[in-house]
Design brief:
The protein is α+β, with helices and mostly antiparallel strands. Among the domains are: 3-185, PAS domain (Beta-Lactamase, 2-Layer Sandwich), CATH 3.30.450.20; 338-491, 2-Layer Sandwich (Heat Shock Protein 90). The protein has 10 helices and 14 strands. Strands 4-3-7-6-5 form a 5-stranded antiparallel beta sheet. Strand 3 (94-99) and strand 4 form a beta hairpin. Helix 7 (302-333) runs parallel beside helix 10. The chain is rod-shaped. Residues 226-238 and 484-491 have low confidence and may be disordered. Residues 239-270 form the HAMP domain.
Length: 491
């Protein structure tokens, strides 16, 4: 299971369990709380009515007294009250009065007059001087049919003090407040569901946030890892080091730790492959110098001696060029970006590169030409000149004598075109790899493959791109210093 799904599942599980218990607590407390409040109000009502009925009871005129008359009038009063959005149109109190023996003397509903209520909990406990209350279901098993009864003692006061002369009980059906209970439960349920949805949204957002940062770290780790063994090209074109992801907290610490680890381990595989390829490249010139040196120790004709001496010089120059370009490439690969201080004109860089290579071109009978007008930009002049110098040198190696190597400028693009045989199509994608070379027109392999690798690295430092294509005849290498590449194969 992926990290995001695990985080989301864990969050929903914890949130669901918490919401379940919280909602159960709320819904379980609503009904008892409402009934407790109702009982509290009924206690006050019963006691105040007990005081009002006291005189009529002790005088023996309860049935015809003012209290009974007013209670009957209360039962017939019209009422239409809106209580927090709920309509109340009936008066629900039932009031009955018993004497000191528990016999009912008055009932507002005329149902129990003359009956013995002394065994009922509300009457019995009150006659004993205790708090009397009970809840009785009208229909067995139906909690909503319950009626709550709260009693208060009726005192007869005289010279000898006061004594309990009877009991007044106030009764109220539970269904009268059930609407309020149901509404409260609905509100709690809807609020709980809303809280659950909001919590889920927060959980999804947090999960996406964490997964996004983790994926950035993963992409960063993949982008800075070295090439896998056996993937074909030992030295893929160098790319600038990606920026360390800006992540908060421990994720940021992890990103910086990964960057430090990358800095320590960077180049381990590269150096191993680099040394292996370099050793292979050095074998041929060293063997040639050694063979020529051994032959020069013999007595040779002057012509042969001159030939072998020239071979030693040529192979030594080859080694020198190899070492110089390795040093240049090594310095470039230690850098992460170009350092541009002032605007640089591509035309000036192209002119400087032609000046550097003019003598070598003249030795081979090749002309150099510069056409077009280039743009100016925030580029590092020394690196741009170095890249163009390597391209012109490479073109001189392949161009036939008497031909012209052209440096063509077009805005932020500059191309080097020769009239040589080009390169095989299969080799185009590999141009720019270190130590990858193709045969020169004469059949020799005198190059090191580092020239285009240097160009590739210079373009990476500038955020640009190098394109190579056969033009038949000739090879065209185009450098694009813009950030967005055009259509065409990019190396």
């Amino acid at each position: 299971m992926r990290l995001g799904l695990r985080l989301l599942f864990a969050f929903f599980l914890i949130n669901g369990i918490a919401a379940f218990f919280v909602l159960r607590v709320f819904t379980a407390e609503i009904k008892p709380s409402v009934r407790e409040v109702m009982e509290d109000m009924m206690v006050d009502t019963a006691n105040i009515l007990a005081e009002l009925v006291s005189d009529d009871l002790t005088a023996g005129r309860l049935a015809e007294g003012r209290f009974a008359q007013q209670v009957r009038q209360y039962a017939t009063r019209p009422v239409d009250a809106a209580i927090w959005g709920l309509s109340k149109q009936t008066l629900d109190f039932r009031i009955y009065v018993t004497d000191a023996t528990g016999r009912v003397l008055f009932d507002s509903e005329q149902r129990a007059v003359g009956e013995d209520y002394s065994a009922w909990r509300d009457v019995a406990r009150t006659l004993r001087g205790e708090y009397g209350a009970r809840a009785t279901r009208e229909v067995s098993g139906d909690d909503k049919s319950g009626v709550m009864y709260v009693a208060a003692p009726i005192y007869a006061r005289g010279s000898g003090g006061q004594k309990i002369a009877g009991v007044l009980t106030v009764a109220k059906p539970v269904f009268a407040v059930q609407r309020f209970i149901d509404r409260a439960e609905r509100k709690v349920l809807m609020g709980g569901l809303l809280l659950l949805v909001l919590s889920a949204a927060v959980g999804v957002a947090v999960t996406l946030w964490v997964v996004w940062h983790v994926r950035r770290l993963r992409d960063y780790a993949l982008s800075v890892q070295g090439p896998a063994q056996g993937d074909g090209a030992s030295f893929p074109p160098a790319q600038p080091v990606p920026e360390v992801p800006n992540a908060p907290g421990e994720l940021g610490d992890l990103a910086r730790a990964m960057d430090r680890m990358r800095a320590r381990l960077e180049g381990h595989d590269y150096i191993e492959e680099y040394v292996r390829a370099l050793t292979h490249e050095l074998k041929s010139p060293v063997a040639a110098i050694r063979g020529a040196g051994e032959l020069l120790q013999e007595d040779l004709p002057a012509a042969d001696r001159a030939q072998f001496a020239a071979q030693v010089v040529a192979q030594s120059e080859r080694l020198q060029r190899l070492i110089d370009r390795l040093l240049e490439l090594s310095k470039l690969e230690q850098r992460h970006h170009a350092e541009a201080r002032i605007p640089v004109a591509l035309a000036d860089c192209a002119h400087a590169a032609i000046v550097h290579t003019r003598a070598r071109a003249a030795q081979r009978g090749i002309a150099l030409a510069q056409t077009g007008s280039g743009a100016s930009g925030s580029w590092e002049a020394e690196l741009v000149t170095l890249a163009l110098t390597n391209l012109i040198d490479n073109a001189i190696d392949f161009a036939p004598a008497g031909s012209t190597v052209r440096v063509e400028l077009d805005g932020a693009r500059v191309a080097v075109q020769d009239d040589g045989p080009g390169v095989p199509d299969y080799a185009l994608p590999r141009l720019g790899e270190r130590f990858f070379t193709t045969a020169r027109p004469g059949g020799e392999r005198s190059g090191s493959g580092l020239g285009l690798a240097i160009v590739q690295r210079v373009m990476a430092l500038h955020g640009g791109h190098m394109r190579v294509r056969n033009t038949g005849p000739g090879l065209r290498v185009e450098l694009d210093f813009r950030d967005v590449p055009n259509n065409g194969p990019v190396i």
